[in-house]
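[09:14] KT: can someone run the structure on this one? pasting the chain below
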Amino acid sequence: MTKPVSRSLTVCSALAVAILLLVAAGLCIGPVNIPFGKAAGVVFGHGSGSDAWDYIIRESRFPSTATALLAGAALSASGLMLQTAFRNPLAGPDILGINGGAGLGVAIVMMLFGGNLSMGSMSLGASVSVIVGAMAGAMAVTGLILALSARIKNPVVLLIAGVMVSYLASALISLLNFFSTAEGVHSYTMWGMGNFGGVSLSRLPLFACLALAGLLVALLLVKPLNAMLLGDMYARNLGVNVRRARLMLLLATSLLVAVTTAFCGPVSFIGLAVPHIARLMLGSSDHRRLMPVTVLSGAAVALVCNLASSLPGDRGLIPLNAITPAIGAPVILYVLLKQQRRD
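[09:31] RB: done, structure tokens below
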């Protein structure tokens, strides 16, 4: 077994163990601490002997923990694909405005349903409409950024263009909120803070199926992504259909970001920072190993954020987007300083 393969197996094993421990902690720790054996009994359908504990696990902690795991994996995979496609270490769903586009799609659709952004309280048809709106907004922004990347070769200018697109989406959202009701504005503001606890148990299968579908496409794109690291011309010489690969990347990224944004709000920094954490652990840019490690790292980071959001106990949940920058910002600063030393 070669050293890189051995290292990737070690990292994946360590991450898998960490995820299992974080899932257990997410089920047990909160305003009401529940013994692990009782929590596991509820998950496996045996019950805990307490109706209150059963309700807390089934209706709150299990859905939020599963949502955090899938959302973290989805955002991290989308961030890695964007960084590879644009060959830019600062590309990410939030920086390039894809989160903003998905949020704009959600805002437009939600105005048709009275401004209530609680996914758990909506009908199935309304939930699907929100997801379609988020995906349309995410695809529109991703397509625009891809089109701009064909004309703008400077990565810094491209990032600035993405930030401007994000500001434009924010301006349109503000305009929609201006004409909305007070309840709609409050609901959108709370949704915009990010929350893994907004997915109910009845909506979890839909979220899981869509997220897993996007992750499957991301894994199937590993070979084209490796070829695209060296440029489009090199990829074509290896027999990769670059146009089709970019289209599949557009669809996969839009699906992953849109589904996560629709259900959890515009979660920042995970998609941007986690791929760099995975690269630091692996010391490699080979997507055959980097993609699985990125997915597992994203799941672990999101589980940590979900656990941290519930630590205050009786004071309520800390907004997710107040936690993710504390993890992501130091990583990005380190990457920038490292790149500066190289230059």
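[09:33] KT: thanks! Residues 93 and 298 are 14 Å apart (CA to CA).
[09:34] RB: yep, looked fine to me
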